[in-house]
Design goal:
With 289 residues, the chain is mainly alpha-helical. The protein is built from 8 helices and 3 strands. A 3-stranded mixed β-sheet has the order 1-3-2, with no helix packed on it. A hairpin with a 7-residue loop joins strand 2 and strand 3. It starts with 18 loop residues before the first strand and ends in a 17-residue tail after the last helix.
Length: 289
Amino acid sequence: MKASSVAPIPTVFPGNTPIYQLAGDAGKRVLWVVFVIMLISSLAFYAMAFRVPVQKRLFHILTSFITTFAAISYFAMACGDGVGVNEITLKEQHNHVPDTTQTVYREVYWARYVDWSLTTPLLLMDLCFLAGLSGADILVAVVADLIMILTGLFAAFVEAEGAKWGYYTFACIAYLVVVYQLAIHGRAVAMNNNAKTGTFFAAIGGFTLILWTVYPIIWGVADGSRLIGVDGEIIAYAVLDVLAKPVFGFWLLFTHDSLASSSFSLEGFWANGLGKEGTLRVGEDDEGA
């Protein structure tokens, strides 16, 4: 009898066991370490704010809020809160046997996106005020930044691969708007206003944009393609967050305070409230009306 050339159909198909990508002990320890760093940095920034008059505290207050929100976010993540699980079903096609599926459950820290949606606009305001950008330019940068963060959040939880990378593309386009406002327009405005401030803005703004460019790369190999585990993702984001917030904050405040020519002072409502010297006005007073 001639032997059959068709292989027997297996009764047990591979790939049906779910894969769980969860944070381990190393990742959880890193979350606690970064929480402490953010907390100590916040206390230091608040102390630095009280050393200057209220008229000159704008950068101190914005920077203090950045690390305060980040500290709360990292505390929540370290406690196991602010985290969800994204279910992804991967389908593999075969020629002689039925298609198989593989289900992946990956932790997604949505608290991180809440943090970024609050802290990155504040950080942008630090840079925009330093450069001397107009209110319209600041609004464009902040809205583009929020679009970038929110589309990243949507991409992290969506199951369909096409939709995921579609949201990712929207986020990258929005980021290019931020890059233009800071690297091109912002630098030109800063250099036009003051040479020393322009040089400082170019340095700290370039530092920030380099860090921000790494974030979507980490997202692509973590939540995007799942090439690295959750612990690796936590560690990578932790390093970036420490550099982009506490290190950025100390650099900004110490250097800005030493630049007398770029001293930024707010009077009126900011310093005096709704009193005689701080009355809010809309338009010009009509004399002799």
